[in-house]
Design goal:
The chain has about 230 residues and is of the alpha+beta class. The protein has one domain: BirA Bifunctional Protein, domain 2 (2-Layer Sandwich). It has ten helices and five strands, in the order H-H-H-E-E-E-H-H-H-E-H-E-H-H-H. Strands 1-2-3-5-4 form a five-stranded antiparallel beta sheet. Helix 3 packs across helix 9 and helix 5 runs antiparallel to helix 10. The protein is globular and about 60 Å long. The two termini are about 25 Å apart.
């Protein structure tokens, strides 16, 4: 078990303050806090999680690059947004599949925000060909889907996402299928929440790894469905 503390109360204090003062002048005056408690802490977490990730699967990447890597940028893209505030008031990191540049593939995610910290796994809003592959895999082997998404080891730790669904199963799928509600899904994700105390405690990286490990059957099902290795 790791005794390293990656994220500190100061991480959440900064994000809370940023939400109250979301402008470039304030950010410039507080950039050292961002660099120390958000950016550097996040990159260190990504680097350390690489060892855990390799044990989960050799096909997911912990990328420590400060731009274009696993850690998301703090800057918002406001070009087409009604909300013109320049900064995100959360921080997050995604451990993408090595094939993610070429196909829609599942990934692991960590979201840190005052009062809203969670781990996420799976694939969010894939394109039509990809979501069709997942639905077809559920129809082809419902028992495998049951083990992946409803097995006790999974449900004890993770909950399936509540994202938007179709009002009825897509054309060509039996509305009486035992997993008809899952066939309506536009995304196939699952998550687990953390408290700020958990996130700022020694060994949080082990807790995050435990959640990711519990999701292995789910992630393997999705990888098999979309045709990428797990």
């Amino acid at each position: 078990m790791s005794d390293t503390v990656h994220f500190r109360p100061a991480t959440f204090t900064f994000l809370k303050d940023l939400a109250a003062h979301n402008d470039r002048e304030w950010f410039a005056a507080n950039k050292e806090r961002y660099e120390a408690y958000v950016k550097e802490a996040g990159i260190e977490f990504v680097a350390d999680f690489g060892t855990y990730l390799a044990k989960l699967s050799p096909h997911f990447v912990a990328d420590t690059r400060p731009v274009g890597g696993s850690l998301f940028r703090i800057y918002r893209d406001t070009r087409f947004a009604k909300d013109k505030t320049p900064y995100k008031t959360n921080t997050g990191m995604q451990f993408r599949h090595e094939a993610a540049k070429d196909v829609h593939a599942p990934g692991y995610y960590l979201h840190l925000e005052p009062g809203a910290c969670f781990a996420g796994i799976g694939i969010w809003q894939p394109d039509t060909p990809t979501v069709t592959k997942i639905r077809d895999a559920i129809v082809a082997d419902p028992a495998a889907w049951k083990r992946a998404a409803y097995g006790k080891g999974f449900t004890d730790v993770l909950s399936l996402g509540d994202e938007d669904r179709l009002t009825k199963p897509p054309r060509g799928y039996d509305p009486r299928h035992p997993y008809a509600e899952d066939l309506k899904r536009k995304s196939f994700t699952a998550g687990s929440r953390f408290t700020q105390k958990q996130v700022t405690s020694p060994g949080f990286i082990d807790e995050y790894a435990r959640v990711c490990t519990a999701g292995t059957p789910f992630m393997k099902f999705l990888c098999d469905a979309v045709g990428v290795p797990f």
